[in-house]
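Researcher: Good morning. I'm working through a list of sequences from a screen, and I'd like to move beyond sequence-only analysis. For each chain I'm collecting a predicted structure so we can compare shapes side by side. This is the next one on the list. No need for commentary yet; just the structure.
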Amino acid sequence: MLCLIIGAFVIFRFCLDQFEKPVENLDDRWNFLVPSQLTPQRQYIQGFTVYYLLSMAIFLVASLFGPQIWGEIAKAIVGDNKLSGWKDYATFPIIVAFVMVGLYPNLRPPLAFDVEIWLRRVGHWMAYIPKNMVGLVNEMGFSGFDLTDDKVATAWSLIDLKRPAFEAPDLKSIGHLLDRLVVLYVRGAVLAGDLESHDLAILRNDIDLDVFKEFHEKLTSVSATIENLQTRLEELGRLSGTERRQAIAGAQRNIRKCLDVLYVIFACAVTAKGADQLEDRLRAIGFTSSFRSKQDIPWSPILKVVGLSAIVLLVGLMTASQTFLKAIDKSNQIPSNIVDEIRTVVAIVITLSLAIGIAIFIRTSLINRDKYFADKFAACVKIALICIAATLPFYLLFYIDGLVASGKFVGWIHQMVWSVVPATCGVMVAIVLDRPSNSRFERMTSGAILGTSLGIAAWGVVTLNAENGEVLWTYVLYILIVYGGFGFVIGFALPDAIHRYRDAQLNQMPQRVAALYNEVGRFFYDYGQFNEWLYARNPALGSKPPSDMLLEETGMDRLVSFVSETRKPFAATS
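Model: Good morning. Structure tokens for this chain:
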């Protein structure tokens, strides 16, 4: 056991060192960073834990079963029973550990057979390395920035430089970029302690200041570049023709390189504080993101959560109906065979899934028109009425055989009343989506709200449909377990899943915008013109902005073709 502990510690130290090495060459924009700076600490620890546990699994298997295997192999080859004593070597785990951390890496196996690199790649993937940095830096680069006249003037005054005049047409795009660079540099220099500004003191609460001290040399390099750019731009008046165009193009390249450095530094400072409230921190720095997640019905998380809930519900229903519910049920109202149980689950899942989709669709459309929060009561009434109308036919269809066989009109009425349950579900889903889902307590509270509401609604329907208003307590217990439990699971998991789905869509936008700009950038004078086109409604696209199409599966290819057919390359018109 002691040797296993020592071996596990050796593996742990080895994993600590290896996990800080990139799996592949990093982007030039952040090649001065190590993996721990490319993602929030919590995600880094999660990824490292996966990497270490996978390495420990290999170590334990080799340590516990290796001696016996090697002993049998040696016995088979040499034929000496004494060699089978390998299995009794207590120090074998230490041998395995040093082979894993010393001998095997120095053999430099081909990449396809390097197990450690594959395990590290899995760990980095779990830690979102470098995905987090890619998304955050791209979002900064393709977002707007707060460049009011007073903030720009203050920034130039703090670095004791005169802002160049950008009156010439070919300098307009540079002016905006250079102002952004100067304002962002000043904020970094203030946070690093190189400059003083009381107006920017609030930023210290949103980001990690140690990052700016760690990369102080990078900030100094940016400062020198800004001074050089200011001097060169002041001298542009003496240049003309090709020489002037080359000077402007060189200035643009230098500005973008410096901006990329600052984006990376600020991204590290932001993620060092954690993965939550990233948008708020970026907004505090001055970024005004124009990325919008397309607001449609997120069927993917809905179906995943409802499908998992349906499986849990079916297993629980079958177990309960065959055990304690069967023992106490004297009314024969509780489904007791597999066919009835499956039909009950299918009816619940389909009607409630439809109600959830309707609620999310209506809520989203009203929010987009600024009508949801203005009159939430009217929105809830609208959701309830549409849910009743949409689910009513399904209840009649699921139980059509029993209704026809009974020949009683009152039976049809009883089934129609059940549409109140999905109406309640739709309204309460809209309400729990308005609640936070950041903590387990908040999710449990949402689950309790939805579960209690569905349980009470189903109980009320059962009571209303009962003859003489009397319902056996065993059937009430069954209804509360089925609908209350199902509602709790949905309320607990669905809001968080939808919020993650929306965030994932939003995080995809910067990468897609970057890819689209790489494809069609030659058709625009500069990024500013491209950005205006991207978010302006276009009659040729059904009066929708191109950004709405960009998140569609084939949206990228369609937009590239559309731009190629409707615009001419900018170089051809200059």
